Predict the structure of Helicase-related protein.
Amino acid sequence: MAEQVLHRDDEDQIARAAMARRPFDADPARFRLAAEAQRISRAGAVESMAAVASSAIQPLPHQLRAVYDELVPRAPLRFLLADDPGAGKTIMAGLYVKELLLRDDVRRCLIVAPGGLVEQWQDELLFKFGLGFELLTRDLMEAPRPGTVVDQYPLLIARMDQLARNPEWLERLDHVEWDLVIIDEAHRMGVHWYGRELDRTRRYQLGEYLRDRTRHLLLMTATPHTGKADDFQAFLQLLDVDRFAGRYRSGVHSVDTEGVMRRMVKEDLLTFEGLPLFPQRIAQSVPYELTDAELELYDAVTDYVGTEMNRADRLDPSRRVTVGFALTVLQRRLASSPEAIHQSLVRRSDRLRKRRQDVLAGRTPEAPAATPDWTDPDDWEEHSTAEIEDWEEQIVDSATTAETVAELDAELGVLDELVRQSRTVRDSGTDRKWVELREMLEQKAIRDGAKLIVFTEHRDTLDYLARRIRAQLGRHEAVVAIHGGVTRPERRRVVEEFTHNPGCQILLATDAAGEGLNLQVAHLMVNYDLPWNPNRIEQRFGRIHRIGQLEVCRLWNLIAHNTREGQVFQALLGKIEEQRKAFGGKVFDVLGEALDGHSLRELLVDAIRYGEQPEVRERMRQVIDERVGDGIDELLQERALATHSIGEADVAALRKEMDEARAQRLQPYFIERAFVEGFRKLGGRMAQREAKRWEITHVPAALRQGRPVASRYRRVTFELDGLEREAERAELLAPGHVLHDAVMDTVLERWGGALGSGTVLVSDKVDSPQLLVGSLQKIVDGAGAQIASRFHYALVDEAGRVTPAGPAPHLDAGPPAEGVDVSWAVDLSWLPGAESRALEWLAAGDGVEFLQATPAAGR
């Protein structure tokens, strides 16, 4: 469609086009098979929602709208997807990736996610979309291979911090031009203004690096806005440097996110039936009082922690951070359970005695492992809960301010008394916190078989609760547990047991279960321990309050209100309850940002150290009132930037579009028919077993060569309802699956020549000879990058009239019946001219319409 000026020097490059005469002698069956392989391989060029038809998902209206109304039409893409937690942003990203792969618009894709989520991304993309992404590991980067790692593995998932902290990796990848980069939890690349300086963290610099090396960029986070407009505007520079350059000036302009951001909140999401997607969620505090003995132990340990923190203030910064971390963990274990604090005090005492022996012997005591900055919640966010649990175990028992034997003796004397007290409390059997949980276990809902998740901060408490709950219920199998030491395969097994076994009712979990697990089989949750990071509260609740939940979700927070931390939590959650009534349950989502500048951790540490001082209590009350009470409504308005809604009319339109897409010829029946025929012709062996399920007993070597294809498959299916049967899951064979694509590619390699030779087919759709001509149409930008493509057919009759033939007219035709003479069809003199007319029409008429209908082409 473009014009080009030709100069005298171009004359030698110009030649008269010659239209080759087609022999029309190809085998009709192979022609149809090759035509189907080509059509299915170019599904994205034909179907409006090809990724939906070829993925193991049931998408929802807001997900379809995000992918097909917001993401796909934008080329190149620069976008921030900021829907609420649990809205299925990973599904939207997977749909988008697969759609662009099917449209041949993406070949190299990089997904960047926090370390604790990369394997979940890998599993979701494989099991739901059939996409084989590799994890970018040190072994992969350092393995001696010809070419680059991206040449070997064009679909990669990288850990955010590992990439940001390895400049040598970025140097090795510097030449790579990505087609698509997706950054999950992108708020971790946030930046802050300090005076006139912008603190460009390593994570933010990684974002800038990737932004400048990719055609499409998708940022994903449920918390894009921290409540500071200038920081938010700086963060948006990752999408558009020029548009969001400079510092936000209040009253002069607003942060305009039109066209670069979408946000939808849970309460506004609907099903295809027009019903609310998420049920109601209710959170309430359960206050209780420590017994006299428990309170005496609490005061003694709190005094010890406060004294040691005061001493730590005199240490060098690195030791001060480590000791401070150890002491706060000790305080949290005190609030967790008598078992947790007793075991921690015993281990700490044993470790300090060993340290004393080292000092006496002249040996350098073993230094505690380095930890993140416990005063900086952002630093903690970069690490998985499994890592944090490991650090706690290593450090809480050993970090101390004591350096001399005398100082160690003094501290050990205090610890011996605390160990004695904690043993007395533990052995007394009067644990008020456990009594509150036991009463919950006696409620009718639990007796009737409802499933409950109990979150605790510490392994000792988890093991303690497991023993007591099993004794209470009288069934060992009723309780399962997940903590940081549980391997990923074992975690999957535990989730399967909890999900499918009616007799398994209680899941005990540390925050290792708060990362990426779908636990909506339960609708009841207890925070046995409240986390010191407020975002963890929403993260935990989000495990059950997510897509697929049908019951009202209830959360109980256990709070000892006669403790210093308990007073902070009670004031905070009381204020949240007030706001919940006004904002319909949306408050948890913004709690972390509402405390910006006055983190919950700081409030709790101040309460522990100075909570007896009236002025400290008053300051904490003011912070909670101002930031959570008065400030949260303003913050919700700021978070409403680029908020979208979806009404019943939108849902109806999306349903119609999806139904029309499904009605087209890229249906499982046609995919199955083409695959089975091609696979068997290539020497493969497969047999149908259960309904809609096949067993592949032999995959030819030609299909495995250079591809990650297995030699056999226990079960495969072409339809969604054939995936799950009892405990055995089948693989979905559809465009994008490596075996499916290998068959289509090999069919085209071997028999694609038939498409150029042509063949004779018979159809009852026409009553006179007609020529069917296929054409691949592409729209490219000035740099030659493909914006869109499709494969279209045209029919030409003897009079030269051209009409569109639809995406798959060969499916309505077949080989001539045996013995029928069709030699007359290839002797007609009008055929070469008819082909020229078809190509002219496809380029000048149909092609212009395609160009005009492609939104990205106008940009």
